[in-house]
Amino acid sequence: MPIEVRVPSVLQNVTQGQKVLHYESSTVRDLLADIDRDYPGFRDQLVEDGELRRFVNIFLNDEDIRFLGQLDTPIADGDAIAILPALAGG
User: Alpha-carbon distance 19 to 61, whole Å?
Assistant: First the structure.
């Protein structure tokens, strides 16, 4: 069972309108590389200098990867990844 990746609307222009992607990867870092191979530029929206951008949140099964293993967080078949860019405004 592949990993389900929920893509926010702000990134769907990169994924050709796809809202949900399915991949088989072993870590979040590998997952982003796999997605970027199919949708060039995807990873650059989320990662800068090898680290998750400050205003991007990635959740593995409802847990923030910043409190797990960051980009090296292991993922397994059947896991769900949600990408949530932080919103700002006033």
Answer: 17
